[in-house]
Write a structure and sequence with these properties.
Rossmann fold; globular; alpha/beta; 8-stranded mixed β-sheet; about 35% helix
């Protein structure tokens, strides 16, 4: 009499929000908008059921750049303004990883501003979450590239005389293929945009209006909620470049939330793989053959 052996089914791990939380205690100020951002990152990763060991989060320097330490994935708190190029290197070294770059408006649009254009033109497959609080919080409240004109800060005691940068207009002009803007308090929309950005096969930028209550006051949260514009409810078409450009040039562009623009186009990694295929087909050159090109 034969006995049928039953092979146990392999259990499929289901990840919840708690599986992405690290044991590191946050040192953000009470009420910081960045709490909403990290919460949305947890929700987005859980929504996509991404194993923590298959995710890497890279940051620069600043309050918001502490975020990788609060997520139980691979993380690297790097150097000021270099989150995007370092993330590019991580993705090229291990294309199987889901890579997120995170940082603040000073980190991303001041010292690191020159890197966005190159990630956009290459269309590197990574998601850049920018926490825009319109101030340098970590260094105690100096004005930043997005500080409104006239605002008083620790470095503009008589009011800023500089026009603020328009992040969405800048990114759209650079050719970013996936562009969204969210409010840190709306974690439902933000989690959805981060998840969609991760799934987008190319460079995705999500600018998050993330208030700093310490240096810009608690009233911001109430004010932003009162004037917030939901682009989807307005009937905005994110596939229409001209409509997207009009959104970025609106006087209230900083209060427009949702997906601004999406254009599907070949990613850097897809093009790189074609080069690799041609290289493999060509074969390996002998060292002597390589050196011959330098013969005079």
């Amino acid at each position: 009499m034969s006995v049928e052996t039953k092979v146990p089914e392999t259990a499929h791990t289901v990840y919840g929000v708690k599986d992405y939380k690290s044991d590191l205690k946050s040192i953000w100020c009470p009420g910081c908008g960045d709490f909403g951002v990290v919460s949305s990152v947890y929700k987005a990763l859980a929504r996509l059921q991404l194993p923590p060991e298959n995710v890497a989060i890279i940051s620069g320097i600043g309050c918001s750049s502490r975020l990788p330490g609060y997520v139980a994935t691979y993380g690297f708190n790097s150097i000021h303004g270099r989150a995007v190029p370092i993330s590019t290197g991580v993705k090229l070294a291990n294309p199987e990883l889901t890579v997120l770059a995170v940082g603040g408006d000073g980190d991303g649009f001041s010292i690191g501003g020159g890197h966005i254009v190159h990630a956009a033109r290459r269309n590197v497959d990574l998601t850049y979450v920018i926490m825009d609080n319109q101030v340098y919080g970590l260094t105690k409240g100096q004005y930043s590239p997005t500080t409104p004109m006239g605002d008083v800060s620790t470095s503009t005691t008589l009011g800023s005389i500089e026009s603020p940068l328009n992040p969405m207009l800048l990114c759209l002009s650079y050719g970013v293929g996936f562009l969204a803007q969210c409010f840190s308090s709306d974690t439902k929309m933000l989690a959805e945009m981060i998840a969609d950005g991760i799934q987008y096969p190319g460079f995705a930028v999500i600018n998050v209006i993330s208030p700093c209550p310490t240096f810009r006051g608690h009233d911001q949260f109430k004010t932003i909620k009162e004037v917030a514009v939901d682009l989807e409810e307005e009937g905005h078409d994110p596939s229409n470049f001209d409509m997207a450009m009009k959104v970025t040039r609106r006087p209230d562009h900083q209060n427009c939330f949702g997906l601004i623009y999406r254009e599907d186009k070949p990613s850097y990694h897809a093009r790189l793989e074609k080069v690799r295929e041609r290289s493999r087909a060509r074969g390996v050159y002998e060292a002597a053959d390589v050196l011959k090109q330098f013969d005079v």
